[in-house]
Amino acid sequence: MARASASQPQAKFTTRTNPNVMFANCGHEDTRRLQDCVRLGFISAGQGRADGVEQYYFSNQIRNLIIGDILCVYRNEIGYVGIARVISKPTPITSAYLSGQKVTGEMFSIKSNMFNESDDPGYEECLTEIQWLTSVHLNDEPASGACFGKPYFAKPLVVCSLDNQQFTKSELEKVFKINFELLLRNELQHSIKEEDDEISFPEGKEKYILHKQKERNRGLIKIAKERQIQKDSKLCCQICNFSFLDAYGQIGEGFIEAHHIYPISELTAETKTKIEDLIFVCSNCHRMLHRKRPWLTGGDLRNLINK
Question: Among 12, 250, 268, 307, which lies 20 to 30 A Cα-Cα from 83?
Fold first, then answer.
């Protein structure tokens, strides 16, 4: 693993295009509580101006990630705590979104200093949204995580892939019961083309079997929609703020489309979709979210609209 140093050029964001198995450090005391990272689905790093380090030094491990990376998440003194998939581009915290909602200090369980350097480019907190693929070790006791100790040790400032660390990867696969090669292959191929709940699957045996085995839970959508109406009677698009009621009158009342932030191909029989996994969007935004593989996030599309 190579530590970022003063002699190395400091790129703001990576130019990589192919997903890889990556390392990132998760949490630092109460600044980025692991419980918040799990509950909200994110990982972040940054700041450090008071420590006298160069710009981007701390946040490089986040800025070096791309959508589709498989992330081995490490925590200081604890060890590896879980495996995740990166589902959004790295973004400064002041313009970041989680599950379609703009990140604010109130989201976190305790008062956080993650916004302290937000007015100083290069030192600000940088955040990316993740989907946890495994259970997470939440115990804060020293060495309570997986693969802790010298053979697996990773310094918190390391910015690298684990591509050439076969021993560590093999041990992580055993502990977390995953297959990195298969996960990456799925990211690179995207051979299954998902559709949303209101669109039928094309005819054909393969698609039919997929639909039968991995059907969305419409009951969850109904409950989520009822809760959203309580917050926003017009059911405005959570990306562009379009309202079918305002545009079409009575015929548009109560109409909106539900977008699952996780593709149906990622679901397993054990997957439990939560209300927080849905966002409500207009038809145009919904189509644009599905235009690319991996899917755009709500934050990605919102940034495109606001350019």
Answer: 12
